[in-house]
Design goal:
- It is a single chain.
- The chain is an alpha/beta fold.
- It has a domain at 1-137: NAD(P)-binding Rossmann-like Domain (Rossmann fold, 3-Layer(aba) Sandwich), CATH 3.40.50.720.
- It is built from nine helices and ten strands.
- Strand 4 (89-95), helix 3 (109-126) and strand 5 form a beta-alpha-beta unit.
- Helix 2 (61-84) packs parallel to helix 3 (109-126), helix 4 runs parallel beside helix 6 (210-221) and helix 6 packs across helix 8.
- The radius of gyration is 19 Å and the shape is globular.
- The chain starts with a helix and ends in a 6-residue tail after the last helix.
């Protein structure tokens, strides 16, 4: 989802794009879980490597193991790939879920593995002349529903708002943060263009609870139904939402899409049948 938007923006700015991933349609076919074909790309030359691939598994054994392979240890392969291609810079799609909220005991497997990946990549690139920048992104969403498989409650909110059905939502004591994928891609490309280095929070200026998000979605879709809070459900967890003002000042821009505008785009672009009706506990 993010890689496709990055490629579009890079091409629009007049640069050549070399795609890399598991898809057979990629220019370079690499499986980060195995490192397959990594050392067959020494003839490719590139200035900047955007690393946005990730595993989004849960906390069970097999999922956590995959998260560690793809999100953490594979970053050694990413550093090697950048070196083989002669890159001068790596821009990493980090995550705000790497940071431990005060009310939480430990990180999820996803958050912990993304944190280790960020640290490994920064360490590995420091041994070369390749600069490193991580933008710690919040939950990403798009107008085509590609984000739904990684954002189950966002999917359910949209599905029920579209159907005009009543939604039973867990308690929402904490703010969440959502960023449209187009804005995420823009921030990453412009970080490359200005030569930004270091680790930066890249959150939307406006945060809101899931309850506020759901109320807004019902307003945007305008198809009836209401949002009810079910105190029997497990409340949404607290997350750390760092202030991204300094990043926006360095890049000279703010995210362009408000949450309402993003929902409007989703309403216009995605067929109702694609929303599904995911039951999340």
């Amino acid at each position: 989802m993010l890689g496709r938007r990055l490629a579009e923006q890079v091409k629009d700015r007049g640069y050549r794009v070399v795609t890399c991933g598991r898809s057979p349609e990629s220019d370079i076919v690499i499986d980060l879980a195995s490192g397959e074909n990594l050392y067959l790309v020494s003839a490719v030359e590139a200035d900047v490597l955007f690393h946005c691939a990730a595993a989004f598994g849960g906390d069970d054994y097999q999922s956590a193991k995959l998260n560690e392979k793809v999100n953490a240890t594979a970053c050694l392969d990413i550093a090697r790939l950048a070196e083989l291609c002669g890159c001068r810079q790596v821009i990493y799609a980090g995550s705000i879920f790497c940071d431990l909220a005060p009310s939480e005991v430990n990180l999820t497997s996803y958050g912990a593995s993304k944190l280790r990946g960020e640290e490994i990549l920064e360490w590995a690139l420091a041994r070369t002349n390749i600069s490193f920048c991580s933008l710690k992104l919040p939950q990403l969403y798009d107008e085509y529903g590609q984000s739904f498989r990684h954002q189950p409650w966002f999917r359910r909110i949209v599905a029920y708002a579209n159907a005009g059905k009543d939604l039973q939502l867990p308690p929402s004591p904490y703010d969440q943060n959502f960023l449209h994928v187009v804005d995420a891609a823009t921030l990453m490309v412009e970080a490359a263009e200005v030569g930004l280095t270091g680790v930066w929070p890249a959150t939307h200026p406006v945060s809101m609870t899931y309850k506020s998000m759901a109320d807004l979605a019902y307003q945007v879709f305008g198809r009836g139904g209401e949002v009810n809070v079910d105190d029997k459900k497990t409340p949404f967890k607290e997350i750390v939402i760092a202030d991204s003002t300094e990043l926006f000042e360095r890049l000279g821009r703010l995210p362009e899409l408000s949450i309402e505008e993003g929902l409007q785009r989703l309403k216009s672009s995605c067929e109702a049948k694609e929303y599904g009706e995911l039951d999340v506990q």
